Amino acid sequence: MDAHSSSPTPVAGAPAPPALDPHFHEHLRRYLFVFYALLFGTLITVGASYIPWGNREINIGVALFIAIGKASLVACYFMHLISEQKMIYGILAFTAFFFLGLMFLTIWSFSDFPRHTVTH
Amino acid sequence: MDIPYTVQPRPDTGLYNAKVGIWLFLASEVMLFGALFSAYILLRVGAEDGLWPHGWLNIPVGTCNTLVLITSSITTVMAWASCKMNQFGRFKFFHACTLCLALTFVGIKSYEYHDKFTHYEIALNDGKIADGHFIENKLQLVNGAYTGYALLKGHVVTDRKELFNLREHPAKHEELRLEGAQIKSLDNYGPWHHTYLAIYFTLTGLHALHVIGGAIVIGFLWGPGSKLWRTDPERFTNRIEISGLFWHFVDLVWIFLFPVLYLL
Fold it and tell me: Of the candidates A75, A85, B33, B233, which lies 20 to 30 Å from A91 by C-alpha distance?
């Protein structure tokens, strides 16, 4: 496909198209690598769920570990978090704090029983 | 009056305004889905032993949908990269691919929902339970009692717990004929059937709404919105980046939803 042939020309006086990073083609290769890694990670997740680890908690841990790895690839490369401005990191730091707090409260609630509750 | 900082970065943030906006929005989305994941954890941990379902969802279909969404992520990135490289034709191609993949995802999800709404658990008068999909349903409820008959593709169990671990003990489905007089009650696998299905429909329904919303934006930017390329290509490229960030977030949520709901 000739990509340029169907490109409409910007009108006269319009701002110039975005300047291209000289390392952009390297980024493209990286995106493709991430894509293959995500496909592979998905198949690994499904495969690992069929392995009888002997304990369902291990299955959960393995699946979440792979999911966190895949999510990191998406966030770092597709969402460009690996080279973002401090402002974005600041927003995400606040988000992570409250998200982890929410999960901590959820897990904490497991051991929060009313007085005189009989637990086994 | 022009909207400031749509292309040039603001001196204090180092970013154009829309990027700060989308990240603040995504932060709120993290908390929204986080709250629902928290609800999922509480429901799952609170379920009685042996009464949390495993194998109620079709893993190959879910895997296929995951691959569709991941592929849509790379086409989104490539669409943005094409704009950066000043290749508008390629942008159109990749964004059209993203749109098709988004619609494919919604289509597969609809098929899965349909499968659940047509799947029945039928309590029989002898205490057994029939479970499966109707092939033919001629049942009628008259004065609180069922009459007629139904043909079911499914299986019969004596203990309801046998319906909850279909991954380790898959059911052998066969054609069954059920007379109305045998049936005590029946209930389909809608959100009301079990807390697992309630949280499944809530999480995947909310996610599907995000996919549909994202597809509308992508469709707009592919169609009428792409006129901006002629007058302000850099601003248009920024819009593609912003819609892409949202789309990757939708993909990111699914990366967690898939193992949590389908595999564990």
Answer: B233
Q: Do B31 and A99 touch (CB under 8 A)?
A: yes
ipTM reported for the complex surpasses 0.95: no
Q: In whole angstroms, what is the distance from residue A103 CA to residue B41 CA? A: 9
Instruction: Please list the alpha-helical segments (H only) found in chain B.
Output: 17-46, 59-84, 88-117, 195-222, 228-231, 233-258
Mark which residues 63-102 of B lie under 8 Å from A by CB.
Answer: 63, 66-67, 70-71, 73-74, 76-78, 81-90, 92-93
Distance CA B242, CA B250 (A): 13
How confident is the model over A52-62, as pLDDT tens digits? 888 888 988 99
Q: Is B146 helix (H, G, I), strand (E, B) or coil?
A: strand
pTM of the model: 0.89
Q: Kindly report, residue by residue over B200-238, the tens digit of the pLDDT.
A: 999 999 999 999 999 999 999 999 999 999 998 999 999
